[in-house]
Amino acid sequence: MIDEDLEAASVPPIDVVLVKRLVAVQFPQWAGLPVVAAKPQGWDNRTFRLGADLTVRLPSAAGYQAQVDKEHCWLPVLASQLPLPIPMPRARGVPGENYPFTWSVYSWLDGETAATAHLEDPSALARSLAGFLVALQRCDPSGGPPPGPHCSWRGGPLATYDVETRRTIDALGDLVDGPAATAVWDAALAARWDGRPAWFHGDVAPGNLLIRGDDLAAVIDFGCCGVGDPACDVTIAWTLFSGESREAFRAGLPLDAATWARGRGWALWKALITLAEHRVTDPARAAACHHVVREMLAEHAATGPP
Asked: Domains in the chain and their CATH numbers?
């Protein structure tokens, strides 16, 4: 994870004023288009709508800069092999106006995010998303970016976060069932991956799924994508789905029990560190993470290790 606070002093406010200046200087053909900040904003990037058909995304810290070139290189390659729209790069910006990073202009994709949409049939979305991820995993992985800092090591071994996860379980104390959380984590570490490297999205979160009705219309934000173990993309099973929709999602993926266990480990790591960070500052977000943790602990208790 990138510590944005360490770099805040060197990055100007990433706001509408900055975006207008950058666009006017570097892409004058779009200088007259209105700029509106997206809501809610993401973590790795700040996003703005540019006119009716474009989106501007600016990395929030230096560690996210590598995602710009990666997306410009690989999104056009992946788009031709996927069943749903994904963002298409339209232009690559360079540092300027005191903003120190490269940045991007993408095509705009319509739809409400799954984070805010009311779903009449979550299982339909689960099946559609599973189909998209199957197609993504079947894309040719040749030359694709392996796990590394550009994706916070998603697609790599869970052991990367072993010390952090155990330390967080201890720090949370009675807020979570420590022995049960440790059991889930140990099972995930034991469920080793020895499969063929495949493309993963890296951040299959409700905010990155665009919905029309109950249908998945597009998938956005491939900044954490790469080639490796696709188990990290299973986390949505607990952060969005439950009950029948979770089972529909699992049934739509060619997963063995070990991959499911590793996916549960990725979800546990993220939920725990987010809960620890926001338990005081953002009670609603902390409560959502606490719910995710309880769901995973209950599932593991019911099914046992793979």
From this structure: 4-108 (3.30.200.20), 113-303 (3.90.1200.10)
